[in-house]
Amino acid sequence: PHVAVETDVAIIGAGPTGLFAVFECGMLRMKCVVIDTLEAIGGQCSALYPEKPIYDIPAHPAIAGADLVHRLEEQAAPFSPIYLLGRRVEALSERDGGGFELRTSKGELVRARAVIIAAGAGAFGPNRPPLNDLSAYEATGAVRYMVARREELRNKRVVIAGGGDSAVDWALSLKGIAKRVTVVHRRPKFRAAPESVAQMEAAATMGELDLAIPYQLHGLTGKDGVLDHVVLATLKGEEKAVPADHLLAFFGLSMELGPIAEWGLGLEKHHITVNPATCETNIPGIHAIGDVATYPGKLKLILQGFSEAAMAAHAIHPRIYPGEALHFEYSTSKGVPAE
Ligand code: FAD
To answer: Where is each FAD/NAD(P)-binding domain found (predicted)?
Structure first.
């Protein structure tokens, strides 16, 4: 593995609190790298509710999730953070002689003198159906959880599983491109925009796509990751096999703490326990802030995560600038560097 970057502080998670930690560290002359599994910054605000207004951000009577993220990015920009997106932090270890080494899912190493874990409820990933040989079919792209380019599915037989907007929208979008589209759902009611559901049902009536209801995914048949059938079953156990080149599964995103649980950190019910005065974990030099951190009186609110970012940055400062007294200063007297 190559060392992608050496920095003062490695921040795991580009949610609102991780982004604000860049600013707080920057004000104390500490450089940051921010790593996130998602391809975009913003954590839950971007992934789960970009258009919903948030009402309890001080001085913003209402601000949409995506707008908050945009402002945080702008506020962090003068400190030139390095964003490593689309990769999960798999391993975190202490280095001989001090500091830490993080390994990402892309095999890069990030070296840092301190770490801030701002991992929310964990890394986002698709909910994967429990099917035989799933990983072999995922590896070849036969089973997918997202579609980058519709053209990749031209003239393919596609089974789409799920009952939400993604399943319905992709069924409508692919019906004129794919050779055959079959939508599998366990019950007649879809949790999607009624207008889209009506369009999908009309397309089914016209024979432009097939609906397999009430069916659930049951198995995959094929060889070496090349799919030939998706096997469906009703709750009563009646099975049918649908010829398919691809399965698109849209069962939503879930978050899991994943590898973080294995780093020797003190945990309490899937949260990292910290000292509330410094947000330091049981491992000196590793701090945790935002939704992932817990202590008596913790509120899982963005505004509390912001304050934790400030406390963690101040607590980390002596590691980066040992022996240098940290004189408390207001941002108004200091200003931020020109970008
Ligand atoms: P998150 O936003 O969860 O971001 C964590 C990031 O870390 C994720 O992007 C994840 O992919 C990444 N990550 C995790 N593990 C790894 C790893 N190993 N490697 C790489 N990346 C990793 N809060 C409010 O204060 N006010 C509200 O009105 C409000 N409304 C909400 C409405 C909804 C619908 C939801 C779902 C939440 C709402 N919240 C609200 C909660 C708020 O969104 C969270 O408190 C906030 O997002 C937490 O920020 P965070 O930075 O700690 O973590």
So the answer is: 8-298
CA distance 231 to 131: 10
The Cα–Cα gap between 179 and 162 comes to: 20
CA of 274 relative to ligand 1 center, distance in Å = 18
Residue 335's φ and ψ, nearest 5 degrees, are 75, 170
Residue 278 known to bind ligand? no
Cα(316)–Cα(296) distance, integer angstroms: 22
Q: Which residue has the CA at smallest separation from atom 16 of ligand 1?
A: 123
Q: Averaged in consecutive runs of 10 residues, what is the pLDDT profile of the chain (339 residues)? A: 87 98 97 94 91 95 97 98 95 95 95 98 86 94 89 97 95 96 97 96 97 97 97 96 98 86 93 97 98 96 98 97 89 84
CATH 3.50.50.60 segments of the chain? 3-125+254-334, 128-251
CATH number of 128-251: 3.50.50.60
Whole-number pLDDT of residue 328: 84
Give CATH superfamily name and number for 3-125+254-334.
Answer: FAD/NAD(P)-binding domain (3.50.50.60)
**Atom 30 of ligand 1 has which residue's CA nearest to it?**
54
